[in-house]
Write a structure and sequence with these properties.
The chain has 71 residues and is an all-alpha fold. The chain contains 5 helices and no strands.
């Protein structure tokens, strides 16, 4: 997958998190991940593991395939 995919995925995660009115710190706490790492994912700087993506999707109320569906 290209860097563009991870940038789009990060932006999607960021926008969905903001729609839920959750700070990065609070969302990271709920998902059980580091808030700095979440920021890197949202900016497309880091590639999240499948486990982390499952945690993020779950806390956004999505299934993993819905989260990964980038148009």
């Amino acid at each position: 997958m290209t860097r563009g995919f991870y940038e789009k995925l990060g932006k999607k995660i960021y926008n969905l998190r903001r729609e839920k009115k959750l700070s990065r710190e609070k969302f990271a706490e709920l998902a059980g991940i580091n808030d700095y790492y979440l920021g890197e994912i949202e900016r497309g700087e880091k590639k999240a593991s499948l486990d982390t993506l499952f945690k993020i999707a779950n806390n956004l109320g999505l299934k993993i395939h819905e989260l990964l569906n980038i148009e």
